[in-house]
Amino acid sequence: MKTCGLSPESALSVSKRVNFETRNQPDSVVAFLKNHGFSETQIATIIGKMPCILSSNVEKTLLPKITFFNSKGISSSDLTKLFAKNPHILRVSLEKKIIPSFNFLSNLFQSDNAAFGVLNLQPRIYLYDFDSYILPNHNILRQNGVPELNIVKGLRRVPKTFFVAPVVLKDNVEKVKKLGFNPAKFTFVVALDVLGSISKSTWERKFDVYRKCGWSEKEILEAFKGYPLLMAFSEDKIKSVMDFLVNAMGFQALLIAKRPNLLGMSMEKRIVPRGFFLKDLMSKGLLEKKLGLKMFLISEEFFLERFVYCYEEEKASELLKLYNEKLNLAAGGKLKTAKSYKIC
What does pTM read for this prediction? Predict the structure, then answer.
């Protein structure tokens, strides 16, 4: 509690998992972390997650890892954030795991910072055997026509796609090809990530939700081909978006199937405030006709230019205030939206 900044509850839990004859060893670890820029909160987090670090040899285990990453141009602030998020890296073998894995990624990306970016996104990557997972899966994708550029992009954006048994990835590749995805496009890799992240029963449940919303099987599959993340969202998110756009805004469900990326928009930050704001504009006579779904997809800057700043200064100021009110109310969950899921 005094040295590591742990709460009484955490200190009691940690004390049951470590054993020291003297305090010299744990004191040296805590001092090392402080000297290398770790905050008291980060130190408490690391020790709470991995108490055994207190028995680590500073000179043989901890320092070489810090030195290695610093030599690659990784800043101390980035390292402290990474280790606080996943302290298990500090226990992974530097020579057998970290160095060969980091060098492989660095050569693949032609960038040390990009290699570290993957580690930040998927900290447990160094716990995997690259020869058993990453390399075979890399080869499977190449053999099936996935460009090297998209493989590199996939490792950066959806690295967990590569952390499955090669036989599983091979099976998923065949499934994605049968669904009509083009291996030359990055959506092929995204579809692999989605399929690898959900079970067959989850796929069927979400498929059924879209069907109940009025989409045919063909329309669901076409939407998935255009926007694979369609199947990554929770059933509640799917129902909420569809219900609001159909029941509150009056759009046909089939039109949403033509713009499936709408499902990826935030209800609180985008869909709900814009929807209610534009309904207010219509009630004020400032919009002559109902707008299409594109109004939810355009950038914030363009939205404001189109619906706020196009008016004279006084009116624009009034509308901006109204729009910000909608944003604040939606963020606080105070804009009433139907959650009857009538169409789903």
Answer: 0.76
